[in-house]
């Protein structure tokens, strides 16, 4: 299968390897688009990035995993948020073709990602990859990332640079930490995995495709991932809204959940 002159067909690859290769393929397409189009019309660039990455991913899933269902941020009908067939499927790919569309359209901004995750009935998230094309690396469940080292000072907390929850300043004060504004959920979780920050806290609106692949990678790396009230993260739900998220080093989970309970 070919889209925009690139080809990938991995019928026999493991799901983890396939997720990584697909995320990286879409990432290369997005980097090429940025280079070719430039940043003179950011709205056009963002729209074209969403479209091209989505079409590439859909084509490759159809070729390499034809029997699986799909939930995509950019999807329509059965591949989008209102589809119903995925609810009875045993395997569902949950994808965000371009996480951080706003950042993608900003010259010099590297906080955008490609998310590819697989949910399986009775198992939950079983494979995932987060490509950070402008940063030059990909994190995936096929090669579990090393757990970051221990916190040496107050925790660094990644938050949305455009819409952080109103209580984040109080959370930082209560935990002795500091806030690090960033774009893209994938970039924020990747920062926790790599040790750039120690936690990522979000509330106020997300969907399954925003967190599925990052959470799959984070859990594989031994990190804590949950709702901000401590509840488990559930995927392939009837309504794909999944509005809040906590990803952090495991030794910080208890204190963060305790402080969050007092703030919510």
Automatic annotation (TrEMBL):
InterPro entries assigned to the protein according to its UniProt record, in alphabetical order: CysQ/Inositol_MonoPase (IPR050725), Inositol_monophosphatase-like (IPR000760)
Identification of the protein by name: 3'(2'),5'-bisphosphate nucleotidase CysQ
Needed cofactors: Mg(2+)
Residues the record lists as binding Mg(2+): 73, 96, 98-99, 210
A GO MF label: 3'(2'),5'-bisphosphate nucleotidase activity
Keywords from the named record: Magnesium, Metal-binding
Top-level taxon: Bacteria
Annotated region described as Disordered, given as residue ranges: 67-88
GO annotation terms (biological process): 3'-phosphoadenosine 5'-phosphosulfate metabolic process; sulfate assimilation
Species assigned in the record: Actinorhabdospora filicis
């Amino acid at each position: 299968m070919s889209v925009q002159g690139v080809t990938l067909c991995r019928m026999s690859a493991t799901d983890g390897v396939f997720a990584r290769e697909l995320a990286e393929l879409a990432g290369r397409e997005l980097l090429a688009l940025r280079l070719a189009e430039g940043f003179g019309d950011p709205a056009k660039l963002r729209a074209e990035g969403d479209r091209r990455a989505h079409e590439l991913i859909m084509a490759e899933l159809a070729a390499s995993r034809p029997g699986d269902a799909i939930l995509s941020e950019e999807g329509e009908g059965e591949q989008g948020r209102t589809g119903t067939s995925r609810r009875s499927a045993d395997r569902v790919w949950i994808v965000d073709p371009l996480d951080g569309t706003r950042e993608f359209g900003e010259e010099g901004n590297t906080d955008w990602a490609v998310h590819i995750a697989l949910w399986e009935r009775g198992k939950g998230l079983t494979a995932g990859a987060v490509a950070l094309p402008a940063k030059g690396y990909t994190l995936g469940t096929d090669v579990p990332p090393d757990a970051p080292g221990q916190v040496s000072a107050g925790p660094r907390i990644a938050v949305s640079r455009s819409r952080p929850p109103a209580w984040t300043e109080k959370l930082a004060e209560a935990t002795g930490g500091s806030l690090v504004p960033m774009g893209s959920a994938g970039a924020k979780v990747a920062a926790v995995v790599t040790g750039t920050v120690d936690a990522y806290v979000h509330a106020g609106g997300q969907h399954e495709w925003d967190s599925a692949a990052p959470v799959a990678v984070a859990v594989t790396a031994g990190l804590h991932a949950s709702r901000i009230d401590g509840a488990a993260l559930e995927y392939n739900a009837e309504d794909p809204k999944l509005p809040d998220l906590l990803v952090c080093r495991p030794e910080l989970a208890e204190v963060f959940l305790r402080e969050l309970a007092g703030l919510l």
